[in-house]
Amino acid sequence: MSEIFAYAIGVMYTPGPINLLGLHSGLNKQTRVHLGFFAGVGMAMFILFVILGIVGLKFINPQLLPFISLAGCLYILYIAWKVAHANVKLSDKQSAAKSLSFRDGLFMQLLNPKALIATLPVSTIQFPSVGITGSAVVIWSILLAVLAFGAPTSYSIVGSMMGKQISDPKYFKAFNLVMAALLVYVSLSIGYDHVIVPWIVK
């Protein structure tokens, strides 16, 4: 059982598009505003764990994965555009990227191929190996979804502590652009690994 948590924490808490957005949220003093976004991430992971845990690999059509990955890459690019064009006003604590919502977190994580890759080993290998089936899958999925919610939230809290040391809006704007560039890089790297390479291999 501890192996499941160890794997989940190792995968969920490493830097990725969701956690980068969590850090960005905290730096812009947006942790409370974006709790819905973080909850959407947790809900997406819950859905993936439950569906894959109950249905298993039969649910996944390998031929559809590049298309799902492409949709995820485009969504990450969309979020990067929103971050880059966020209006930073330190007097308005809900100004920067305030439109990141529960729906954004849900769809960004559902369309994130790394989320699917993270949930597959747990749902299809680790759950059955320790006898987690039926309703127990739902209970474990809730626990793992809470961990998924905690990942970007913890990044946001760290970002908030760092952001308290910064008062000039130009630094936040510069950071927004850096974060947007990182998200574009993440999107392109995911696109190469999970869209272009599979199509070339075909």
Automatic annotation (TrEMBL):
Protein name from the UniProt record: Transporter
Record flagged with keyword rRNA processing: no
Location(s), subcellular: Cell membrane
Native organism taxonomy: Bacteria, Pseudomonadati, Pseudomonadota, Gammaproteobacteria, Alteromonadales
Pfam families xrefs: LysE (PF01810)
TM ranges: 6-23, 35-57, 63-84, 137-159, 171-192
Leader sequence residues: none
Membrane topology designation: Multi-pass membrane protein
Keywords: Cell membrane, Membrane, Transmembrane, Transmembrane helix
